Amino acid sequence: MQFTTVGREIWRGARQAQRLAEANASDPEVQERLRKLRLVKALRESKKSWKEIQDLVGISRATYHRWQKALKEKGLAGLKPRSRRPKHLRTKVHWTPGLLIRIETLRKENPTWGRWSIWLTLRKEGFQMSERTVGRILAYLEKHRRIESVAGYLARTQRGKLKRRVNRPYAKRKPRGYEARAPGDLVQVDTLTLTLGPGSMVKHFSAIDLHSRFVLAEVHSRATAKLSEGFLSLLLARAPFPIRAIQVDGGSEFMAEFEEACCALGIALFVLPPRSPKLNGHVERMQRTFKEEFYTRAFAHPAQRAAGRAGYLPGLLQPPKASHGPGGSCSAGVFG
């Protein structure tokens, strides 16, 4: 029989491997930090500044010394990232089945109630809990699909009551990159509601050409698609150039007869997206000029401005100050 002994070097290597395993040396984060420490040490020996080292390695001077101290005191175990788990955690509160069932019942009977309404009802019934606890229970019930969220309930019950999208047979969005390169390429049209006094309200129709700044305005007592069609006829008659495209918002006065007239005349009709008045900025700014420089004037017969007849009021709308279009050309305004 032959006995063999394990050498001292083998035992030393086994203990070293055990210590490395206990220090979690195979952790990629530990190896990365050790690599950065060696790299910083090499850069410091080559007389690199700390600003250059921080840009190259990605760690600060304080971080280097903190890691170096931990490595010296604890070995590789000191390079292991510390846990960020909070020291004090909120202990889980176990809700009673009676409370869960009662909150679930109240929510199903009143699908739009929030935590405050349910908490107030429970307090009157003798339950002792906080409003936040009711909120956590509601979140638990929604997560496990035992109750429906308020948003989901409203979306489901009001789905048929929502405003349906209007079908525009001819109008479309303005193509991307479309520009007004000549007079008539794009005319912005809009309406403005003005209150002149008690029981006196007018609808101000405005149109402006983006290239020449030609402006036309008309006043009515209402804003309907039929009156908008008449304003379009006036615009075509007064404009000193052919009109090829018109841009309007989604108002009902620019549908029906107005849209049909644009289709029959071969005029492109561009409609703005919802809640985007800034895309009609030129006519919006012109309406502000009318509001500030014309409708603030005192007239001898204010009721005449609210006349219900179809047509414009001659002699009332005066052109504002002349504006200069592209190339320095002065544009002319036509108002009634």
UniProtKB/TrEMBL annotation:
Domain Integrase catalytic: 179-336
GO terms for MF: nucleic acid binding
BP-aspect Gene Ontology terms: DNA integration
Domain of life the protein comes from: Bacteria
Protein known as: Integrase catalytic region
